[in-house]
Amino acid sequence: MNITNFNIVQCEHCNTRFRVDAKLATRQQLRLRCSKCNQIFLAKLIPTTTPAKSARVITFCNQKGGVAKTTSCWNIGIALARQRQRVLCVDFDPQANLSLLAGVNTNCGCFYDAVTASKPLSEYIQKLPLGLWLLPSHQRMNGFPKYALQTKDAEQILNKSLQALKHQYDFILLDTPPSLKFFTLNAIIASDYIVIPTQCAYLSMHGVEQIDLIINAVRKRSGKPKEPKLLLTLYNANSAAATAVYGILQQRYPNRILQPHIPLDEAVQEAQILKHPLFDYSPRSPATLAYTAIAEALNVD
Predict the structure, then answer these.
(1) C-alpha span between 58 and 188 (Å, rounded)
(2) Cα angle for residues 146, 161, 65 (degrees, 5° grid)
(3) CB within 8 A of 145, min separation 6: which ones?
(4) With pLDDT > 70 as the criterion, what percentage of the chain qualifies?
(5) Read out DSSP for 66-92?
């Protein structure tokens, strides 16, 4: 018998383990006689390997700025970490706003430094006191598109680079710049799931339309990421304009709006100014509770 094609069974009387041909092990019931204690037992399979886990890669993107994209990526990452998930945040924006929120030293290295030096990303990842990890960004990232022009399959650079990290984390969250260019395309291709943060405002709604077209083009070609979800941010339930735009978004994107909305909450800005995590600064604020709920939804989706 080829020993690579077997399952393990254990005698329920003396606990002796045996190899059984995989073809026999597919039967619903398999009665065996133990060669050690001579007792007949009903075989129970013992897994010989544990399936390798792979992180879920989630990109936060919108070509429109000022929609709390980076803020949402950061706070959802913290919320997931508080739910005992291993979370890596990747700052894939040359503006490095995610790194600024995290309060890290961006001169220690970024994605561009790793790729151009042919070094693993793990050498540039920083462990944060908040219980998650960060790959920072830097203005040097502005040189990445030019470097990529000389590289085969340039749109796959991020996707290929993340493969070695996927078994180490439960979630990899990507923060992208407010554009539809090189960085965002690389992130979309690397993703399993897309979150489009947007305000309930006319220009933001237009930004959703544009990024949705790009994502659908990638999905038709590669079969992933999943259909993108919208995250309504800075939401003012008392605004007639916001309510009207929300109604339009519901019609255009049925069953694609994450719940709950992230409300307009001064605690978010205050926490950032004081350089405190929102979850510590105001644990029961409306935004804190909303981000926690969104993280829980992403965790079970």
Answers:
(1) 9
(2) 60
(3) 181, 182, 183
(4) 90
(5) SSSHHHHHHHHHHHHHHTT--EEEEE-
Mean pLDDT of 189-207: 92
pTM of the full structure: 0.82
Fold of the CATH domain 56-300 = Rossmann fold (3.40.50)
Distance of alpha carbon 301 from alpha carbon 258, whole angstroms: 11
- Burial classification of residue 10, based on how many CB atoms lie within 10 Å of its CB (0-12 exposed, 13-18 middle, 19 or more buried): middle
How does pLDDT run across 247-293, given as a tens digit for each residue? Answer: 999 999 999 999 999 999 999 999 999 999 999 999 999 999 999 99
Q: Looking at the chain, which residues constitute the CATH 3.40.50.300 domain(s)?
A: 56-300
Q: Which has the closest alpha carbon to 231: 200, 210, 269, 272?
A: 200
Distance from C-alpha of 7 to C-alpha of 121, rounded to nearest angstrom: 37
| Residues whose CB is less than 8 angstroms from the CB of residue 45 and which lie 6 or more positions away in sequence, other chains included | 7, 8, 9, 25
Return the number of other C-beta atoms located less than 10 Å from residue 258's C-beta: 19
56-60 and 45-46 strand pairing: unpaired
**CA distance linking residue 211 with residue 237, whole number of Å:** 25
